[in-house]
Structure formats: C-alpha cells, structure tokens
C-alpha cells in the first residue's frame, strides 16, 4: 500500500474516543479500512500506512476545527495554598481559593457539557451511523434548501418555505430545552432520527429514568390549543397530532424491542412552542402534551421506571441508524 496513492473515490470519517486519560481521534475510510489515529494528548499520529499521512492530517484538521474535541482532565483540579504570613499571605491564600473555585466550576461545567454519550463512536465498517451526530431540524432544513426561491408574487411558495423553516426553528428551540433535561447526566436525547426508507423521521427521542419518549415538536406561537382524548385543536382547527404521535411511538417500540431483545415501552409526546394558551383538562393519559418551557419540570416529576443500566442499553440501540430500519430491509429483502 505504501507505493499506491489513496483511492480518490474514498471518503473519510472520524470517530472519537474520549475517556479519562484517553483522547484519540480515528480516521476511517468509507470502505471500512482505518487510515490511522491521533493521540490528541500527545499529538502523535499512528498511521496504518505512511500513504495516509496527508489524508489523516487534512481530515483531522477539519474535524478539530469543527468539533474542538477536548476531553476533560482525568481528575479535578487540586487546590494550591500559597505560603506566607501576615496580610500578604492571607491575600495570597484568598486569591488561591477563588482561583480554585473558578477552575473547579469550569471543570464540572465542561464535564456536564461534554458527556461521553455525546461522542460519536461508529467506525464506518460497523455498518451503522451514530445518530448523536444529527442536529435538531436537520431534515427540515435540508428539505427547505431544495425548495425553489419564491418570486415576488409567489405567496404560496413563500408560505411553503416559511412552514418548513418555522418547523426547523421550532425543533431547534425544543432541542435546547431537551438538553437542559439531559445535561445533568441521567437522560439521553437524539434529534432528527430517520425511520424506514421513505424519508420519515422522529423529531427527537428522549431516553432516561422516566422512560422512553418519541417527541413531536409543533410550532404554534401565539395560538390557542385545546386537547381532548382523541382531538387536538389549534385555533379551532383539528390536527392529527395525537394519532401521528401514537403511531410514531408504537413503531419506535417495535424497532427498539427488536434491537434490544426485550420489550421497550415508548410513550408519545407533543411539545408545543410558545402557544398563547393550552387547555389540557381532557388530555389523554397515553400522550404527554407540554410546552417547551415545561419540559424540565415535567421530566423531573416523572417516576423512575428505568435503571441506569436499562437507560444505557436502550440508548445504545437508539443511537444506531440500523435500529430504525425495518428488519426486512436490514436483511436486504
């Protein structure tokens, strides 16, 4: 291989290993072979073949500029107490305590903002894509980009473009609140989860001690919402949100059960973005209907139904792209 150039049609992908004392980035080719990896602690490259040197350097430079992959330190910072007597010694110790408190806060914030579950772990040769890479609203933004630019008098075209971009912005808004649920560490969240082969996707999937939820985001800013056992009305107009959410949850439960090997209860959920009012006096028990600002409090009040081990097992299956493909298609039928 050393005398041959890298095949021009192969693309490269990076997986990251971030653990206490370990920070390594691996470069994989699209044909399933590894080009090498870099120890980000020492800056040392380990190549599968010298011919991949330029490729590894270029791919990792782009990836590091985009991701900024810095692992937290293996241990918390230790306090440093300067010596000294009198007023100068007291001032020095006071400054040291303040600096230590600042470093400790920064360290703990970093650990919360960079949990291990958010690091993509899939090499291409594994046959699946890690869905933690997906951004909220990704499918909607991609579709909006394919729409022709509406003309000055094309009111219908502007309405269609506005509908897609409003939906995408709504999913991004809800994703920020879902991150507040997941940030303390017990919950996990995925966005824009593709299901099947017809372009369908789940806005969000939330997994935690309170259960597994498929989250359907709906942007109705300033609207009046009324929810009944089987009816969802926005400003007096019916919408099939309850039916669609139930269908999504039932489909997700079947796919997750097939991947995990045990039954997985999935509850549907509708999250509203900034409505004027929500009447849930007759809301169904099987579909959670909340506003985005209620998400954190809602999650904190849920009873515990999954152990940490069960959360990890379900999320490990949920983050694999192959989980959301029907078994028939997975076998190539």
Report on this structure:
There is one protein chain. By secondary structure, the protein is of the alpha+beta class. The protein has helices at residues 53-67, 86-113, 138-146, 155-182, 241-260, 295-300, 308-318, 327-330; strands at residues 12-19, 22-29, 34-39, 44-47, 188-195, 200-208, 211-219, 224-227, 232-234, 237-238, 266-273, 277-279, 288-291. The protein has 2 domains: 12-71, no CATH class; 128-330, no CATH class. Helix content is 36%, strand content 23%. A 5-stranded mixed β-sheet has the order 5-6-7-11-13. Strands 1-2-3-4 form a 4-stranded antiparallel β-sheet, covered by helices on one side. The protein has a 4-stranded mixed β-sheet with strand order 10-9-8-12, with no helix packed on it. A hairpin with a 2-residue loop joins strand 1 (12-19) and strand 2 (22-29).
